[in-house]
């Protein structure tokens, strides 16, 4: 079966878990990650037969950001994805590589990704946390977690350590900018630089307004 037809099956499956209850992980997130993964995969080289299903199913099990099980989310997703792919009849020769790509994509899991396919999927997912869409996702998640927008006296962590459990803007400094430094592919790093620049421009505009 052509990969394009498999994608319809993957998307149908992921729609079951990608709900509007979590705007940062809705179906649009998965579509963006898949699109970026394809672009990086074609640029960097890599098997799309591994990259595409891994990108579609990377968050098949969604664990809330504040859950104690958060670090296990990617492994749970990888296990569930292989079960689904086996039941659907996807070629078993790709299972190990797909499992590694899904398990390794998570920031909190802290897994050293080995294959170019895993690096591509990891970069694609992390890039979706940066730039304009990353800003939108950050505020959407903070709204769900009921965090304040920023620290009243020091909004941009000029004189304190960032605390993103309390303040949304702190998440830029606590994680997002650091995430850009972890991108593995050359094309991913180039895109990450562009997206970080747009985020810093946003912070400059916010500083002027408050």
C-alpha Rg (nearest Å): 17 Å
| Residue runs with pLDDT of under 50 for 5 or more positions | none
Shape: elongated
Could you say how many structural domains there are in total?
A: 2
Number of helices: 9
| Average of the residue pLDDT scores | 91
CATH architecture type of the largest domain: Orthogonal Bundle
What structural class results from the helix and strand content? mainly alpha
The percentage helix is 55-70%
In percent, how much strand structure appears in the residues?
Answer: under 5%
Description:
It is a single chain. With 210 residues, this protein is mainly α. It folds into two domains: 1-125, Orthogonal Bundle (Hypothetical protein af1432); 129-210, Hypothetical protein af1432 (Orthogonal Bundle). The protein has helices at 3-15, 27-44, 48-56, 73-88, 95-103, 116-127, 131-145, 170-180, 186-209. Helix 6 packs parallel to helix 9 (186-209). It is elongated and about 55 Å long.
Quick recap of the structure?
By secondary structure, this protein is mainly α.
Question: What's the structural blueprint in terms of helices and strands?
Answer:
Blueprint: H1 3-15, H2 27-44, H3 48-56, H4 73-88, H5 95-103, H6 116-127, H7 131-145, H8 170-180, H9 186-209
Which key features would you list for this structure?
Hypothetical protein af1432, mainly alpha, single chain, 0% strand
């Amino acid at each position: 079966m052509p990969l394009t037809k498999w994608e319809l099956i993957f998307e149908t499956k992921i729609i079951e878990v990608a709900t509007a209850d979590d705007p940062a992980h809705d179906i649009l997130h998965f579509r963006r990650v898949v699109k970026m993964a394809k672009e990086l995969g074609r640029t960097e080289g890599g098997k799309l037969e591994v990259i595409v299903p891994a990108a579609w199913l990377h968050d098949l099990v969604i664990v809330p950001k504040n859950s104690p099980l958060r670090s296990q989310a990617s492994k749970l997703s990888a296990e569930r994805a292989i079960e689904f792919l086996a039941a659907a009849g996807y070629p078993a020769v790709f299972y190990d590589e797909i499992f590694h790509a899904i398990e390794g994509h998570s920031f909190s899991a802290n897994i050293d990704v080995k294959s170019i396919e895993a690096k591509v999927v990891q970069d694609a997912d992390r890039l979706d946390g940066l730039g304009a869409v990353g800003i939108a996702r950050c505020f959407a998640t903070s709204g769900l977690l009921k965090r304040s927008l920023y620290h009243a006296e020091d909004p941009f962590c000029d004189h304190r350590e960032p605390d993103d459990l309390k303040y949304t803007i702190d998440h830029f400094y606590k994680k997002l900018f650091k995430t850009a430094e972890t991108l593995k592919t050359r094309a991913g790093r180039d895109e990450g630089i562009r997206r970080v620049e747009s985020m810093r421009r946003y912070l400059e505009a916010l500083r002027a307004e408050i």
